[in-house]
Amino acid sequence: MGEQREAGDFPYRSELLASLSALILLWESPGLQREILTASGEPIDQPAHQALRHLLAGQPLRAGELAQAMGTGPSNISKIVKRLEAGGLVARETDPDDTRSTRITLTEAGTAAARHIYDLGDDMIAQVLSRWSSRDIARYTELTKRFTTDAIAAAEEMRRNGLTRRTD
After folding, report:
1. Superkingdom of the source (predicted)?
2. What is the pLDDT of residues 93-152, one digit of tens each?
3. Is residue 103, in this structure, part of any structural domain at all?
4. What whole-number distance in Å separates Cα of residue 40 and Cα of residue 114?
5. The CATH number of the domain where 52 resides is what?
6. Is 4 part of a structural domain of the chain?
7. CA–CA separation, 99 vs 91, rounded Å?
8. Where does the chain show beta strands of DSSP type E?
9. Per the domain annotation, does 91 fall within a domain?
10. Are β-strands 61-62 and 90-95 bridged in parallel, bridged antiparallel, or unpaired?
11. Exposed/middle/buried for residue 66 (C-beta within 10 Å: 0-12, 13-18, 19+)
């Protein structure tokens, strides 16, 4: 899978940001994602895997919404959705808010495949936390939820302000 990065490899002033960078690169690495997909038993590629995760978290979605969530373009999303449709994992339905548009939704098989992928994630985090006390897990979870909420709010504020660097 290649050399894993440690927090110390990242020259951030923030030790937290360096640690998060190492974690994100590990969990989003193509090698690990390939291993997760192999373990899932689902005959899909990484972009299809990502689409299933997004759909289970927020379906139904228009193709443009899915493309934005995945950071890709309409042409690529069209190909991904066609592969998932051919595999019986997603279906298109008319958008009741705009009958010219369609929404993508998971089929029963697609929901099962996406849930299986989430189950693998749950198993992985359970292994990571297997030697932690329930108190430590609860506290870490509480702080992580708070951090995530604050990070989302800060990102929205930065976007409104043109992503400029703070000087204070």
Report:
1. Bacteria
2. 998 888 888 899 999 999 998 898 888 889 889 999 999 999 999 999 999 999 999 999
3. yes
4. 10
5. 1.10.10.10
6. no
7. 16
8. 61-62, 90-95, 98-106
9. yes
10. unpaired
11. buried
Q: How far apart are CA 36 and CA 147, in angstroms?
A: 27
Q: How does DSSP assign 76-106, residue by residue?
A: HHHHHHHHHHHTTSEEEEEETTEEEEEEEEE
Report pTM: 0.74
Asked whether residue 115 is domain-assigned, the answer is yes
Q: What total number of domains does the chain contain?
A: 1
Residue 102 CB neighbours (<10 A): 16
37-91 tens-digit pLDDT: 787 776 788 889 889 989 999 879 999 999 999 999 989 999 999 999 999 999 9
How big is the chain by its Cα radius of gyration, in Å? 19
CA–CA dist 93, 95 (Å, integer): 6
Residue 30: C-alpha distances to residues 9, 27, 33, 109, 146 (Å) = 19, 9, 5, 25, 29
